[in-house]
Structures are given as structure tokens and as C-alpha cells.
Write a structure and sequence with these properties.
TIM Barrel; binds the ligand Cc1ncc(COP(=O)(O)OP(=O)(O)O)c(N)n1; binds the ligand Cc1nc(C(=O)O)sc1CCOP(=O)(O)O; binds magnesium ion; Aldolase_TIM; ThiamineP_synth_TenI; metal-binding; thiamine biosynthesis
């Protein structure tokens, strides 16, 4: 799937689920399929941190999740690992400020989707100049999922970006639940990005439905 096939990036980004094997208390393939049934619109494969799979095990796991996404036409984005994304013909890549530079990644992946993490207006402007299709801004709220997360900043940066008239699609990330999701959209975000709210839920499909309802009203 290329950018051309994604009619409306903002709409597609609305409920963005991110997951790796160590984020789940249940079978990750079951969690992903349930999350899709509950209404997620975008998926990022993020296999990193304690006990994360590596090497061939990581590749096999990525392919399993990719095939579930393909079955339901959900874009499959790879976090950090540009070479893996290219070898799997993934729909795109998400990189942060400490990863490979965005302009270099854009050169490598052609017109596939490029997401970039940003924590300031300047980083958003640089991401746009380097060819980002969307930015992930966070942490909005406090999170324990990402070990090296920065301090929570609420929706301040999203507000600042929109006040400057910058129109790039934005997803908020970090500590987002159905209870606190709405301010991300009200401040000008196009979607919410979650890990634990779905991956650690007793019922991932129901959790995805609740998140969707929270931002659809
Ligand atoms: C949608 C989205 N936004 C932000 C991030 C964080 O990326 P990064 O800062 O590179 O941190 P890691 O996820 O690689 O630990 C993201 N992955 N997705
Ligand atoms: C992967 C990630 N990136 C963040 C950032 O601020 O850039 S916060 C984060 C973790 C999000 O997990 P949860 O939804 O469980 O809080
Ligand atoms: Mg990264």
C-alpha cells in the first residue's frame, strides 16, 4: 500500500495501535486481530525493549502481524528498523529523533509512509522539511511503556503547532486512554496512538471500541 492508496491520512491515523511481543499479556496475534475488530485504523510493529525478539524470530513475528494487517487492509508500519520495513515491503516506517535521519529514511523508502516523532514545533518543521507524512507528538500523559520517555507535556505542543498554521497530520502518544483521549483531538490532533490501553486490556476489542467512541464524539 502506498501513500496514493491512502485517501485520507488524517482519517486513517485516528486510532493508531502500536505493539510488540513484550507489550502483551495475551497472544499478540490474537490481540492485534481483536484490536482490528474493535476499530483500530493503523498499526505499528514496535519490537524493542526487555525480552524483545531479535534476528529471525523478529522477522517471522513481524510477518505474522503484517499478514493480519493485510487481511483487514490496515496499514503496517515498522518502528525504527528501516531495513526490516524495506525487506517486508511494509507500508511505512516510524522513526524518532534518535533514529536514522528522516531525509535519509525518506530517500530509502520512496513514497511509503514516513512518521517522525517530534517534541517541539521546530522538530515538527524539520520533520516536514525532511518529508514526513505525519508526526507523533508525546508524551501527552505520563507513560511507563517507554523506558526513555520524556516528561509529559499535555497538548501544549499540538496547540502550538496548529496555532502556527502547520497542517501536517498529528497523532498524540503517551499514556492515552479512553478517559483522557479527547483533549488530543480538541487541540488539533488527528488521532491517538496507544500501546498499553489496548495491548494490556482484558478485552482488546472492547478497549479499541471505547477509544474509538471517545474520539468519535
Ligand atoms: C506514533 C509514534 N509516535 C512516537 C513514537 C516514538 O518514537 P521514538 O521516539 O523513536 O521512540 P521508540 O518508539 O522508537 O522507542 C512512536 N514509536 N510512534
Ligand atoms: C512509544 C512511545 N513514544 C512516546 C513518545 O512520547 O514519543 S510515549 C510511548 C509509549 C506509549 O505507550 P502507552 O500508550 O502504553 O503509554
Ligand atoms: Mg524510534
Amino acid at each position: 500500500m502506498t501513500k496514493v492508496l491512502i485517501k485520507d491520512m488524517c482519517e486513517t491515523l485516528r486510532l493508531y495501535f502500536i505493539m510488540g511481543s513484550n507489550n502483551c499479556t495475551m497472544d499478540p496475534e490474537y490481540v492485534l486481530e481483536q484490536a482490528i475488530k474493535g476499530g483500530i485504523s493503523f498499526f505499528q510493529f514496535r519490537e524493542k525493549g526487555t525480552d524483545a525478539l531479535t534476528g529471525n524470530e523478529k522477522v517471522i513475528f513481524a510477518k505474522r502481524l503484517q499478514s493480519i494487517c493485510q487481511k483487514y487492509s490496515i496499514p503496517f508500519i515498522v518502528n525504527d528498523d528501516v531495513e526490516l520495513a524495506i525487506s517486508l515491503n511494509a507500508d511505512g516506517v516510524h522513526i524518532g529523533q534518535g533514529d536514522e535521519s528522516a531525509d535519509e529514511v525518506r530517500r530509502k523508502i520512496g513514497d511509503k509512509i514516513l512518521g517522525v516523532s517530534a517534541h517541539t514545533v521546530e522538530e515538527v518543521e524539520k520533520a516536514i522539511a525532511n518529508g514526513a507524512d505525519y508526526v507523533g507528538i508525546g508524551p501527552i500523559y505520563s507513560t511507563t511503556t517507554k523506558e526513555d520517555a520524556k516528561s509529559p507535556q499535555g497538548t501544549t505542543i499540538i496547540n502550538e503547532v496548529r496555532k502556527k498554521g502547520i497542517e501536517i497530520p498529528i497523532v498524540g502518544i503517551g499514556g492515552i486512554t479512553a478517559e483522557n483521549a479527547l483533549p488530543v483531538m480538541e487541540s488539533g490532533g488527528n488521532g491517538i496512538s496507544v500501546i498499553s490501553a489496548i495491548s494490556r486490556a482484558n478485552d482488546p476489542a472492547e478497549s479499541a471500541r471505547e477509544l474509538k467512541e471517545a474520539i468519535d464524539c
